[in-house]
Amino acid sequence: MTLYKNLMITSTLFLFIGCGTLEVNDTNNSTITNNSNTTLVLVQNATPTPTIQIPSPTPRVEDINSSNSSENIPDEESSSPIDFNEHIISSGSSTTQTDYKSKYINSKNCNQIIDKEFLEICYDYRLKVAKAVSYTLEGDLVNELNIKERPKFYEEETIDEQYRAKYSDYTNSGYDRGHLAPDASFDWSEESLNATYSLANIIPQIPEVNQKTWVKVEKYARDKAVELGEINVLNLVKYNSNPKFIGRDKIAVSIGFYKILYNRGLNYNECFYYLNDKSNLDENISSHKVNCSEI
Question: Do residues 200 and 275 share a domain?
Fold first, then answer.
């Protein structure tokens, strides 16, 4: 029975036709003989041969690109390289400088921000004057045309009339109509020059300050713009908690004003402060220089 059971489960059968006897080799190499003229040899391995799976080779990149699916794979040579420097934020010292314009000309500090195209004005309704004026001086323009004829001062119509300064408010007040963005820095076109004559750009200034000391730092700013190619300027006006008022419309008089010159790209800034009185009429610019970080 053992022999026939082995015959039933065998995996390989070889049949040879010829003369002789039937011989069957079992796993113990025993032989069974039959009287038949056919010789049958049965061989069963004690241990089956394991099946080995050979993995398909990983295709090379050039083989993929040359296949029919290459249209779904971007071509390395035709695609634009990633510019990693494009997203790097500079950590140079110039980036740590104060952005004076956004610091002082904003909706929290100003009742109204007036855009005159060539300058921006931070206006206060209670004081009826500017708290700050910002503009850019381009070196190739500040001395370009030098228009001699000056326009007239005018009320700023973008401000509600109840908050406007009037020309007559300065008459016989003892104060000059002092420019914050100076006309001499914008006399390279009729439009830019006219923008500086809005009364929103004007504050009461002691005549000696306006005509002798403040005018010197205005010229210095133009020279610096020529030297550097371009600078930004912020004129910041300082008022006390209970300011003096002039005119029928009650225009506030400041106690002093800063001129801040800067170019963030060139890591340049200089700051100057002038009192709005006769106590310091020194025309030497350096005597008015202050530390920008203390403003």
Answer: yes
Q: Tell me the pLDDT tens digit for each residue of 31-77.
A: 444 444 444 444 444 445 444 454 444 444 334 343 443 344 334 33
Statement to judge: residues 268 and 135 lie in one domain: yes
User: Which residues have C-beta within 8 Å of that of residue 47, sequence separation ≥ 6?
Assistant: none
The domain of 28 spans 2-41
Residue 97: band (very low, low, confident or very high) from pLDDT cuts 50, 70, 90: low
How far apart are the C-alpha atoms of 37 and 54, rounded to whole Å? 44
Q: Are residues 20 and 115 in the same domain?
A: no
Angle at 109 between CA 104 and CA 112, to 5 degrees: 105
The reply to whether 162 falls in a domain is yes
Query: pTM of the prediction?
Result: 0.67
Measure the CA–CA gap between 228 and 101, rounded to whole angstroms: 19
- Give me the CATH number covering residue 174: 3.40.570.10
